[in-house]
């Protein structure tokens, strides 16, 4: 077994009689990106707060080790190994970006010269050099988030917790943030990421745990999770009701959607299957007006696991075949 | 790094941060200075002639200046520490505190930084208000260097005590407005002390409250040190109050800080 950066057994937390985390087990190998995925209120932030020593785990929890140290008995050793970027920006808005960075350098007990060097390098890396002398409160959302991560990196942490790092960012800033997160692990850092965006977990994470209602509904790689549920299909749409009816007669195994004049043929979306479907349509003389391939994505997994149904308008990840 | 140098180093870092805030945004501190200065001028120039009749011995306005300044100086502390309550409450609602909690720094340094910063601000404020008092005619009577030193020590100790209480109030408040309200008694308490009028002139049932509340012994001690009046038991009472309040505020603040944040 490779060494684990985070190993939690039976992580529990409740406030009064409201159970937030109902015994979750986590195992995150060093140098990987782990994503805790879940809807609002699933308990993601609570899990991060506990693992990052901000709040204590519930009394019924099992052993929790972060960076090899017991969370309950040696939180200070855990703190020395981690960096946290919370959901709400953890920067001091009253002082400048550079002063925020130097504050971190001082708290990590770097020498003056080294502190300046590290801070300048990080400000440069996160494209904040021009804004370094401005108060952090004047920064845009994306800049604040970059400063936040830059501050987290001052102490050279081995494990980084990122609680919804891209929530509220525009698409460009989000992609920048993804790039930053990918770069982090190339240096052997472990990243524990929470997100409510399925695409984000799919893009970044080596392993994903779906958290729902305080429990882990499923855990595995994005591929493994996608395999858990069927859902891949080719959808054919017709404009003319009579063409639709004749196609439906010819393709008996397709499921019908009479309202939309659409047929769904189960498929894994591979090139080979697609070709055989197209050949078959040709030989049956069926000419669909629209053809879309729907591969099972984490949305399907997510909705299947968290008990809600896939919204009808959920077309973002379908690709049109031209 | 062992724990004491760590505590000192991290607290110094936090202090620098707080002083940077105070320097960058001086309006809060300056606003809080306004109240004691206004009251000083009000009581000396508007009420001075009338009030001086109350302190006995055919006193006039200049005698009343001497009487009222020690109380005003201690009120300045009460006023300045409201700023500490407000800035602690503001700080606690910021994400940066969550970051500090997850860092391997000395646990108490966040609060210690606030307290030391606030005590320094109190001392600076007292010096400013004291300068105004001197400008309008306040003079000490035969105070020795040792007495001056003791006076400054008393003011600093009292500032420390009130700051810890104010920090506790700030910790217990959900936001800056609530903190400002709950710290209000710290500036109102001097009004029911011997700051403006002798205790003997108050209703009999109220005199014990006025006499033994924290401000009166401190005011009487300061008067004794600067003006040569009788200090008596007030010196010990002032020190006891200060240490007691500081310890209480310290316990209150740190237990709040160490509790799981909401």
SSE blueprint and pairings:
The complex is a heterodimer of chains A (322) and B (262).
Chain A: E1 4-15, E2 18-29, E3 33-37, H1 44-51, E4 64-66, E5 69-70, H2 75-81, E6 82-85, H3 97-107, H4 112-125, H5 141-153, E7 159-163, H6 171-186, E8 190-195, H7 198-204, E9 207-212, E10 215-220, H8 222-227, E11 233-237, H9 241-250, E12 255-257, E13 262-266, H10 271-283, E14 290-294, H11 298-305, E15 319-320
Helix pairs in contact in A: 3-4, 3-5
Chain B: H1 3-24, H2 27-46, H3 48-52, H4 61-92, H5 95-101, H6 109-135, H7 145-172, H8 176-182, H9 185-188, H10 207-212, H11 215-227, H12 234-258
Helix pairs in contact in B: 1-6, 2-4, 2-6, 4-6, 4-7, 4-8, 4-11, 6-7, 7-8, 7-11, 7-12, 11-12
Keywords (chain B): Antibiotic resistance, Cell membrane, Membrane, Transmembrane, Transmembrane helix, Transport
Pfam families (chain B): ABC2_membrane (PF01061)
Domain ABC transmembrane type-2 (chain B): 27-260
